[in-house]
Design a protein that fits this description.
Number of helices: 5
CATH topology: Glutaredoxin
Order of helices and strands: HEEEHEHEEHH
Strand order of the largest sheet: 4-1-5-6
Oligomer: single chain
Largest sheet: 4 strands, mixed
CATH class: Alpha Beta
Distance between the termini: 29 Å
Number of strands: 6
CATH architecture: 3-Layer(aba) Sandwich
Strand content: 15-25%
Number of domains: 1
Radius of gyration: 13 Å
Helix content: 40-55%
């Protein structure tokens, strides 16, 4: 059996997790300011989320921007769709737009 490509691994992670963030570090210990800002905002929602530490998965760090069309980290996906990075996450939390999306995604899981 063929080993899945990095792109297939990424697509499976996104499909298998209703809410997933690709970040530097972990939610408990972010390793860059943008990831810390995104997690702080997401923590206000109490939504369950999966994460991938791209610092420990350089093959994903290298390939994900080509898959998502988004050049930087973190990257948040909800129900398979790219939401964006830390600025967009924070803006959507502040406006109240992100909470319903997260609740809907995690309720359906």
């Amino acid at each position: 059996m063929n080993k899945p490509s990095t792109e297939e691994i990424i697509r499976r992670q996104i499909a298998d997790n209703p809410v997933i963030i690709y970040m530097k570090g972990s939610p408990e210990a972010p390793e860059c300011g943008f990831s810390a800002k995104a997690i702080a905002a997401l923590n206000t929602t109490s939504a369950d989320l999966a994460f991938v530490n791209v610092l420990q998965a350089p093959f994903i760090r290298e390939r994900l921007p080509k898959v998502s069309g988004w050049p930087t980290f973190p990257q948040l996906f909800v129900n398979g769709e790219l939401i964006g990075g830390s600025d967009i996450i924070c803006e959507m939390i502040d406006s109240g737009e992100l909470q319903p999306l997260l609740q809907q995604a995690t309720a359906a899981a």
